[in-house]
Amino acid sequence: MQLIDGKQTAADIKQEIALAVSLMVQEGKKRPHLAAVLVGHDGGSETYVANKVKDCETVGFQSTLIRFEDNVTEEELLAKVDELNQDENVDGFIVQLPLPRHISENKVIEAIDPKKDVDGFHPINLGRMMLGMPAFVSATPAGIIELISRYNIETAGKHCVVIGRSNIVGRPVSILLSQKAKPGNCTVTVCHSRTPNIADITRQADILIAAIGSPGFVKADMVKDGAVVIDVGTTRLPSDKTKTGYKLHGDVLFDEVAPKCSYITPVPGGVGPMTIVSLLKNTLLAGRKEIY
To answer: How much is the pTM?
Structure first.
C-alpha cells in the first residue's frame, strides 16, 4: 500500500506556481490577483478562506478578502460580484459557499464572469469541461486528477466507481475520468444514496472515489484487493483529543481499508490540500489569460 501524499504534492505545486509568478514579474507582467468574498462567519469557510489568503502570499499572488455579514442582501452581494467582474486588476475571484438561505447560490454563481470563475462552478466552465474544451475545472476534481497524474496511476481501461453525484465533485470527476485523455479513458460508474446494493458495485472498482460526505461509509468489505482509493470526505466531528475540539473524518474507514489498497489518500492530508492548490493554479491561468 502506498499513501498518496496530497500535502507534499501541494507543496511541490506551490513552488512551481511561485516560480512562474516570479518569472511573470521579471518580465514586467502584473502579479495574479485572487479575490475572495466571504459571507458570515461559518467556521469551515473562515478556515478555508484564511488558508487561501496565506497560500496566495506564499506563491506571490496579490489577494483581497471581502467580508459581508450574513444579513447581506442578495442585491448587495450581486452588486459586489458585478464590481469584481469589471475590476481589471482582479484576475479571478470566488464567492465562498455555502451562502445564507436567503441568497440564491445559483444566481450568484451565474453572475460571475466565466473568465474570472476560478472556482469552476459557472455553467459555461462546466459545459466547456464536459466538451473537453479549455475551462476552469473546479478545484477538488482538478486536485484528484492531479494526484492521479503525479503518482502515475494507470486509468486507461480501468473501472472507476464514484460515490457521490454533487456538481462540485462527483459529476465533474466522473466526466474527467471518462474523457479521452490522460488521466482518463476509464469506464465510470456513479453511485449515490439511491443506488441499491452499492457494495456489489464498489467491489468492482479499480479506482474508487468516495465523495458522499458520510464518515466511514466505505468499509473493507466494499473494496477489492489492489484498488486505488481516493477519499474526498472531510466531515468535522467533535473530538476531545484535539486542540480545536473537532477532528476531520473521511468517507473511508482508513485503518480497515488501507491494507487492501495499492494507493490510498489519507484524511486529512490527501485531497484537501490539493483543492486549494488547484484554485491557485486556476488563478495563475486566469492571470496569464490562458483559458479565455
So the answer is: 0.94
